Amino acid sequence: RVIIRQEPEAASKYIAEYVVDRIKSFAPRPGQPFVLGLPTGSSPVLVYRHLVRKHKAGEISFKNVVTFNMDEYVGLPPSHPSSYHSFMWEHLFSHVDISPSNVNLLNGMAEDLEEECERYEAKIREYGGIELFLGGIGPDGHIAFNEPGSSLQSRTRVKTLAYDTVLANKRFFGDDVSQVPNMALTVGVQTVMDAREVVIIIIGAHKALALQKCIEEGTNHMWTLSSLQLHPHPLIVVDEDATLELKVKTVKYFKSIETVAKSCGMGQKMPK
Ligand SMILES: N[C@@H]1[C@@H](O)[C@H](O)[C@@H](COP(=O)(O)O)O[C@@H]1O
């Protein structure tokens, strides 16, 4: 499914409502938490803002939610302002009632990085897998840090960043390319694909080619998000700008799914 909204704000609100709805209907409790995969980047910032707002309005509790973040830079201490640890606490965790012991992030400072990746995968398995993986994409179609050419069966591992990604992320490092780490720890494509549901946010014209490659063309390791074509429950939520490279026919089709579902009174439970 692809949900199209005119503005990033409405797309983000849709996702926040969707996530809240999923957590509530799961009815998590101690011993049976809702396991949520989370991304960083500018795209999910508004989603987090909505989630925080909903938490403050008493609509959602994160007490029985366990989170696993997608990735982290190698060599940045958690306290570094550009680390994904800092990002997550700044935008979400500090503002909701999540228990710090339920927050999982890869440690890019681990002495043995491979062991750290294995530990992460094992911990996800211990929780019985991820219920819903929320993600964004890079302009080159990467999911987490699974750069073009990544195995579609990859698992959590050390990854060298593509030059495009280093350039795209220099804005978080004072626009200084030399400050961007060139390696990261990332969940694999298969780690994301193992989640029972995957929800992706794509915002902006600079992501339009990636969206087109990922949904209108074949499954291809050069556009790793295209692996979602093989997932049973994928949902991609985009703004109009991100649809610029899609065929009119594709856009109309996905819009019609939502219209038909509404007219049948199915709300979010739309036909696949
Ligand atoms: N590893 C992250 C990805 O998980 C994220 O999807 C991407 C897009 O970020 P933005 O939303 O800022 O474009 O940035 C990084 O590369």
TrEMBL record:
Belongs to the glucosamine/galactosamine-6-phosphate isomerase family. The keyword Glycosyltransferase does not apply. GO terms for biological process: carbohydrate metabolic process; glucosamine catabolic process; N-acetylglucosamine catabolic process; N-acetylneuraminate catabolic process. One of its GO terms (cellular component) is cytosol. Catalyzes the reversible conversion of alpha-D-glucosamine 6-phosphate (GlcN-6P) into beta-D-fructose 6-phosphate (Fru-6P) and ammonium ion, a regulatory reaction step in de novo uridine diphosphate-N-acetyl-alpha-D-glucosamine (UDP-GlcNAc) biosynthesis via hexosamine pathway. InterPro entries: Glc/Gal-6P_isomerase, Glucosamine6P_isomerase, Glucosamine6P_isomerase_CS, NagB/RpiA_transferase-like. The lineage of its organism: Eukaryota, Fungi, Dikarya, Ascomycota, Pezizomycotina. It comes from Eremomyces bilateralis CBS 781.70. Its EC number is 3.5.99.6. Keywords: Carbohydrate metabolism, Coiled coil, Hydrolase, Isomerase. GO terms for molecular function: glucosamine-6-phosphate deaminase activity; identical protein binding; isomerase activity. This is Glucosamine-6-phosphate isomerase. Residues 103-130 form a coiled coil. Signal peptide: none annotated. Pfam families: Glucosamine_iso. Residues 7-222 form the Glucosamine/galactosamine-6-phosphate isomerase domain. SUPFAM superfamilies: NagB/RpiA/CoA transferase-like. PANTHER family: GLUCOSAMINE-6-PHOSPHATE ISOMERASE. The keyword Hydrolase applies. Gene3D superfamilies: 3.40.50.1360. It catalyses: alpha-D-glucosamine 6-phosphate + H2O = beta-D-fructose 6-phosphate + NH4(+).
